[in-house]
Design goal:
With 193 residues, the chain is mostly beta strands. It is 7% helix and 38% strand. The strands form 2 sheets. Strands 1, 2, 6, 7, 8, 9, 11 and 12 form an 8-stranded antiparallel β-sheet that branches. It has a 4-stranded antiparallel β-sheet with strand order 3-4-5-10, with no helix packed on it. It starts with a helix and ends with a strand.
């Protein structure tokens, strides 16, 4: 029985269940490991960064402890992935005494298929202006609608990218505070644990 458990554990270890964590590599005075147990706090005047590894991703919360609004200028900021491709960030305002959250690599939006469906059951549905629905036993034909169906397609490798394996990301964050811009730059390494 013990040998079976050992074999199963070995197979699980070999099967590719890789776990990754991150390290701040640059600037050198802020270099440290970013694990999963607790936030790593890094202060870059006037902001505070709280970083943690969650599900193989780097979660960065940027806190604004000041009484002024500070805006992350997305078009002027960038994340350069390990392959060297530059990715833009979205503009976000950090209200006083609040934070924003960045996730690297960014999570892709979930896309759900919309279209004809077949269901079996008892009940009825009622639709909008021009929808044709029939009460009865499991009969609903939404594919006969007169209204068009829309599906948002997000196929933007600039905003959404994958970070496979180990490597480094160069991160440049440009902020505006009361008309004055400032920047913070990091090099973040990803390593297999």
């Amino acid at each position: 029985m013990r040998s079976l458990a050992a074999v199963l554990l070995t197979l699980l270890a070999i099967s590719g269940c890789a776990r990754y964590e991150y390290d701040i590599l640059q600037p050198p005075d802020l270099a440290r490991h970013i694990g999963t147990a607790s936030d790593i706090v890094v202060r870059q005047d006037p902001l505070e960064y709280r970083l943690r590894t969650v599900d193989n991703r780097l979660v960065m919360r940027i806190y604004n402890p000041t009484e002024d609004s500070i805006t992350l200028l997305g078009p002027q900021s960038s994340a350069v992935d390990p392959q060297g491709q530059s990715h833009p960030l979205r503009t976000q305002t950090i209200a006083p005494q609040s934070f924003i959250k960045l996730i690297f690599p960014p999570l892709r939006p979930r896309v759900e298929r919309v279209g004809p469906s077949i269901g079996i059951g008892v009940g009825g549905t009622f639709g909008g202006r021009y929808r044709r629905h029939y009460e009865g036993v499991g009969y609903d034909q939404p594919f006969y609608d007169d209204e068009p169906r829309y599906l948002a397609v997000v196929d933007d490798d600039a905003l959404y990218w994958d970070w496979r394996g180990e490597g480094q990301m160069r991160l440049t964050l440009v902020f505006d505070r009361g008309g004055q811009t400032f920047r913070h730059q990091f090099v973040i390494g990803r390593k297999k644990m």
